[in-house]
Amino acid sequence: MDFNPNRAIYLQIADHICEHILIGTWPVETKIPSVRELAIELGVNPNTVMRTYDLLQQHGIIVNKRGIGFFVPVDSFSQIKKYKRAIFMEEDLPQLFKNLYLLDISLEELKQKYEAYVLTHYKSN
């Protein structure tokens, strides 16, 4: 995994885990790699992975079954969306608004681009 030096590693690992859950690499009700296993796989300190797991537990994205390991709970998809949405609203959206203002992009133009994007990438059956 290539890490972005402008963002905390534990948050990037959280994104990595969320992505694996959403794409089905780690399906609902299955065990995810242990702290030590994931640390070795990603080439990071186990404390960094533990910090990530703590964060994801706080948000209900993973659960710890004491003595067994960490698992993906049934409602993980909704919890991931809730977590990612909060980050988007607090961090990404203000930057988007700033760029819209500075570049004089109207909401109507943005809406048209968004609708075209969704049609091209998600509704092309």
Automatic annotation (TrEMBL):
Signal peptide: none annotated. PROSITE patterns: HTH_GNTR. SMART domains: HTH_GNTR. Gene3D superfamilies: 1.10.287.100, Winged helix-like DNA-binding domain superfamily/Winged helix DNA-binding domain (1.10.10.10). Residues 7-75 form the HTH gntR-type domain. Keywords: DNA-binding, Transcription, Transcription regulation. InterPro entries: Tscrpt_reg_HTH_GntR, WH-like_DNA-bd_sf, WH_DNA-bd_sf. This is GntR family transcriptional regulator. It comes from Sphingobacterium thermophilum. The lineage of its organism: Bacteria, Pseudomonadati, Bacteroidota, Sphingobacteriia, Sphingobacteriales.
